[in-house]
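Extended Data, panel c. Modelled sequence:
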Amino acid sequence: MSEHDETPSTGAALLALMTGVYAVNRFAASRTPGHSPTHYRVLGLLKDHGAYRVGDLAAQVHLSQPGMTKTVNLLADLGFVEKTADPSDSRATLVSLTEAGDNALTERTKDVVRTVLPGLGEFSEAERRTLWDAAQLLGRHLDPGPWALTDTASTTEKTEGE
């Protein structure tokens, strides 16, 4: 039996999937103009978890507090986030996502997909099914949060075609 015939461990399979996702992100970042991945990581955290203190955002994104302050100020200037005083500590600033920031995050995701698709070539029906199944599997094991698959046209098409 070759190594390709053996079923990988869950850790090995997840590592392979994450490596592929990182490659897709690098590919997309090199071909799409716009804000840095850090900006979209911040917007994504705010969408998924609500308001954060600047220091907590910095820790989540692995950025220095001054670096995060600069990032938050830029995102606020763009209208993507709103800064307010933390009611529990007036010295701290809370950062929350605005509707414009949510829209920017959605559009960035669509831009990445539009950019990446032509570079991937055509996938067979079985390959598309494998990708879909992997996304569904992860969704069942993770809290789907607001990023859950909501494209009802695609899900309807897939389930009707089974």
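The beta strands are 52-53, 81-86, 89-97. This feature is highlighted in the accompanying rendering.
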